[in-house]
Amino acid sequence: MVESAIQKPAENAQGPVKDEARTAALVRALGARSVVLVGMMGAGKSSIGRRLAARLGIPFVDADTEIELAAGMSIPEIFSTHGEPYFRAGEARVIARLLDHGPQVLATGGGAVMDQRTRDLIQIKGISVWLKADLDVLVKRTKRRGERPLVDKMKDLLPVREPVYALSDITVQSRDEPHDTIVDDIVAALPKHLAISAGLEKE
Could you tell me the domains of the chain? Predict the structure, then answer.
């Protein structure tokens, strides 16, 4: 809108100060908790997560990367060598460990929160954010990533996983817009879940 694009110079000058105050309040309210991004592969958890972490000034951690480091092999190799149950058990252990090291933005694998114990830990030690994306968006984003397990099962997995993702504290639509726009949506939704004064919510 024109009103949001054209502001008085004094208001523009105050903008960065207000943003810094809002960000500082969010991080203080997080304490040792993590902002945990959940959702299907292709939802943008890693790319959006990095930008969100930079916005908040806290570390970004990708659970899949940590799993690969712990196992000494890639996720496709884990799946092909040991099978999915083995991978899921290791995934749960790694996420439990990572949740002890907040505050941070933690991107999880698509099936991580299907484990009840993992969901319980996230509820205690984090704020969960579901990056919800339509099937056509997910397929378009993942079709170039042939190394990812389970891509061919996307249509079957989505209706099974979405009711669990929907238990998240915050739901944000991941869509074909700049990632910083999605980050704005997350930052705007966080105050309500962190018991921050409404005065610091997005104006």
Answer: 30-190 (3.40.50.300)
